[in-house]
Amino acid sequence: MENLDFARMQMAFILGFHIIFAAVGMVMPFFMISAHRKWLKTRDEVYLKLTKAWQKGVAIFFVIGAVSGTALSFQLGLLWPEFMKHAGPIIGMPFSLEGAAFFVEAVALGFYLYGWNRLNEKFHWFTGLIIGISGVSSGILVVAANGWMNSPSGFDFIDGTYTNIDPVAALLNDAWFSQALHMTLAAFTAVGFGVAGVHAYQIFKKRNIDFHKKAFKIALTFGAVGAILQPISGDISAKDVAKRQPVKLAAMEAHYETGTGVPLYIGGIVNEKTREVNYKIEIPKALSFLAFGDFNAEVKGLNDFPDEEHPPIAIVHYSFQIMVGIGTLLMFAGLLFLISLKKVNLSQKKWYWILFALLTPLGFIAIETGWIVTEVGRQPWIIHGIMKTSEAVTPMPGIQYSFFMYVLLYSILTFTAIFLMNRQIKSINKNT
């Protein structure tokens, strides 16, 4: 295997790991302060215990996210030196602002963790809110940098030289809003359903039911709202990609022939040799409408683009199908939850808790497949239309050893996180 293959695998592995902990770090503080606010209003001791239990989770994921995020930042210079040589001065602003947001988050977390019985109650709660806001801000700023890679702006590229650099224009690139909105809602959906699923399992096992039901309701309220709003952000993203990256859209749908009134494929098996999709379900004219708001709009197919500019079509198509399928399922599950708030008898059924327990990992799978669509769908470009990934990779030998080292390190971090969270849940069930 060549340097490019190991560099891609290493970047994919680290990013795939970090994005889960980053999503949890963005969202969990909002669960924590929601429980805290209910404690301040009701003085119900269960909400106080829930707040303190979740603050431990926030602290654990903050530390692991900081470690994995720091390692990830090194990869840009280590694996892609040519990219950083040219892109660094252009997209330095979002990374610098992300560092500032992380610093604010760390300070606020310190105030929150050690502020019990020391700070004014309302100010103490407010520091928790700052943790959540700064965490979401960090995520949005990193996504803005990624959006620039998909929609480069803020510079002129003349004769291989990057000139007239405008960092603000680079930060506010055409892709940042749609990607940031989609990722933020995905984080709230995934973490909401993930946390709710853990508590649903505890309820099914009849462990500290009052505690876990309160936790389940808070977490899934956020998750359900995110899941119901996600199709709106998906529509915005699809129209944006259709305009800026038509080859990515074609790969997402495994759409080969340019045409008007193009159908939307559900499922299907991609045959890249014959350039066909077999066993799919077609919704007439739906892709034209979703991409351009017109049932008869023209959608470009992969055959209109040079083969060397095609991303790995099967990977992108299957990942997109999984992401959309899970998103649709979670949307309906979110609606079911909102209905159950009015119909209490639903929550008395065993299948109800089993269902949400089974949904626990799906949101995170959707996040991973969504990022595969975003990153793999941009290939072969690291900066879309400007620099190819093969042109940015390091010539340094021995990248494979670095890859195996990071696999070991992140595996240790994963098992540590699982161990700590499992111990936390056991402690809750024992002491609550």
Task: Describe the protein in words.
By secondary structure, this protein is mostly helical. It has a domain at 185-394. It is 73% helix and 7% strand. The protein contains 14 helices and eight strands. The strands form four sheets. The protein has a two-stranded antiparallel ribbon. It has a two-stranded antiparallel ribbon with strand order 3-6. The protein is globular and about 65 Å long.
What's the helix and strand layout?
Blueprint: H1 3-42, H2 45-79, H3 81-114, H4 121-150, E1 156-158, E2 161-163, H5 167-171, H6 176-204, H7 209-244, H8 246-252, E3 259-260, E4 264-271, E5 276-283, H9 286-292, E6 298-299, H10 313-342, H11 350-358, H12 362-376, E7 381-383, E8 387-388, H13 389-392, H14 399-431
Antiparallel strand pairs: 1-2, 3-6, 4-5, 7-8
Helix pairs in contact: 1-2, 1-4, 1-6, 1-14, 2-3, 2-7, 2-14, 3-4, 4-6, 6-7, 6-11, 6-12, 7-8, 7-10, 10-12
What distinguishing features does this structure have?
8 strands; 7% strand; two-stranded antiparallel sheet; mainly alpha
